[in-house]
Specification:
Keywords: Membrane, Transferase, Transmembrane, Transmembrane helix. By secondary structure, this protein is α/β, with parallel strands linked by helices. The chain folds into 2 domains: about 220 residues, Alpha-Beta Complex (Spore Coat Polysaccharide Biosynthesis Protein SpsA, Chain A), CATH 3.90.550.10; about 80 residues. A 7-stranded mixed beta sheet has the order 3-2-1-4-6-5-7, with helices on both faces.
Length: about 325
């Protein structure tokens, strides 16, 4: 090798190794003293370099004390509801990778490195841990509702997820800092999934064992109450993100009602030349006007929704990938 090449090699600055990504484990908790310490220790063992945050949501037991004893960073969110906690966590914490899980010991911390590796190696924005195992079998009502919600989401927003209600997921900084959280309670998981589908972000799923809660720990999820809230959230998000289809369906239904009301009136008029049922004729015309108005609303709101989608996309692109 020539002396000139040797000199160039010596003068060339050493290539710096890329710094490891900063990982934040986010655990929203409400009355989880029976499990939170073991959850924190599990994620500490699985992710030794991660910062583990426990966000207490007005617990009346010793959740905070148990989390502190296990070495977690404890913060508080006074507004009740998981959605409020997630909004606060994603706003407050600065990291490259955000891992969200529940503090009830149902999710396996040993799967965390695999979820993070998939997110980083495939340059994804979200990896969801799909739940499998005895925990799902023990909660048949929740499992049935989950299957129904997955089907509704797939039908309305497209395929992409098979377990939208999983509380165990990893998201990128891009996703976390561009996600416009609006939910208050357990519907937050639905909002996370729909946001990813609406912007067509890169996502993936990995099956993970889902266990049972400890004996002295109770679920905060109400099958019927929270199920109805999730359905309402899906309907409102469909109205906001797919307004032309939403108002178009309403307009088509109103138009059909108008035609059914007007049919006998028109038939009588063609036979006799008279309109004896003025109230029915007026009602049919009014319903048809509502149908047209609904269609016009759909066209206008669709343009607004497209502008909002473009703004969210630009905000997402402003942020650098980890």
């Amino acid at each position: 090798m020539s002396p000139a090449v040797e000199m160039l090699r010596e003068d060339r600055p050493a290539r710096r190794e890329a710094a490891p990504p900063k990982i934040a484990v986010l655990l929203p908790c409400y009355n989880e003293e029976a499990a939170v310490a073991e959850v924190v220790r599990g994620f500490r063992a699985a992710l030794p370099t991660a910062e583990i945050y426990v966000y207490d949501n007005n617990s009346a037991d010793r959740t905070i004390e148990r989390a502190l004893e296990a070495g977690a960073i404890v913060r508080r969110e006074r507004r009740q509801g998981k959605g409020n906690v997630v909004r606060r966590m994603l706003a407050d914490i600065e990291a490259d990778v955000y891992l969200m899980a529940d503090g009830d010991l149902t999710y396996d911390p040993l799967a965390a490195p695999l979820l993070i590796e998939r997110l980083l190696s495939h340059q994804l924005d979200m990896v969801v841990a799909t739940r499998e195992g005895e925990g799902m079998l023990a909660r048949k009502g929740h499992a049935a509702g989950n299957r129904m919600f997955n089907g509704v989401i797939k039908r309305l927003f497209g395929a992409g997820f098979t377990d939208i209600l999983s509380g165990y997921r990893v998201v990128s900084r891009r996703f976390a800092k561009s996600f416009p959280t609006a939910s208050h309670g357990f519907e937050i998981e639905t909002e996370l999934a729909v946001h990813a589908l609406d912007l067509r972000l890169a996502v993936d799923e990995i099956p993970v064992r889902y266990g049972k809660r400890p004996e002295n720990s109770t679920s905060k999820l109400s099958t019927w109450r929270d199920g109805l809230r999730i359905l309402w959230t899906i309907a409102m998000m469909y109205r906001a993100l797919k307004p032309f289809k939403f108002f178009g369906v309403i307009g088509a239904a109103l138009a059909l009602i108008s035609v059914l009301l007007a049919a006998p009136v028109v038939e009588t008029f063609l036979e006799t030349g008279l309109v004896p049922r003025f109230p029915t004729a007026i009602l049919a015309a009014s319903v048809m006007q509502l149908a047209v108005l609904s269609l016009v609303c759909g066209v206008i709101v669709e343009a607004i929704a497209e502008g909002r989608r473009e703004a969210k996309r630009l905000r997402y692109l402003e942020l650098k990938r980890a």
